[in-house]
Amino acid sequence: MITFLKTILIILLVYFALKFLIRLATPYIMKYIAKKAGQQFEQFFGNTTASNSQNNPEGSITIDKKPNTSTRSSKKVGEYVEYEEID
């Protein structure tokens, strides 16, 4: 009976200790994740802005036009059927 109580006490002690440690470590883990995400964001988007600034000097204006594509749908979807409610 005493070993059972010791086991339960140890399990509860470990549970509350882990709960306390996780609560203390969560802000540091979140800061680390945010910093890593920021670095990846800079790495991904930093290279594209650097390449654009090399091709066009600052203050230049470029206009990208949408290509002329006329897509008219000649597909017949189906005919309209009017339904009446039957009482």
Shape: flat
Tell me how many strands there are: 0
Q: Stretches where pLDDT falls below 50 for ≥5 residues?
A: none
Helix content class: 55-70%
Mean pLDDT: 83
What's the gyration radius in Å?
Answer: 33 Å
Strand count, sense and closure of the main sheet? Answer: none
Structure class: mainly alpha
Distance between the termini: 75 Å
Number of separate helices: 1
Order of helices and strands: H
Fraction in beta strands: under 5%
Supply database-style keywords.
single chain; 87 residues; mainly alpha; 0% strand
3D structure, described in words:
The protein is 62% helix and 0% strand. The relative contact order is 0.04. The model has no long low-confidence stretch (mean pLDDT 83).
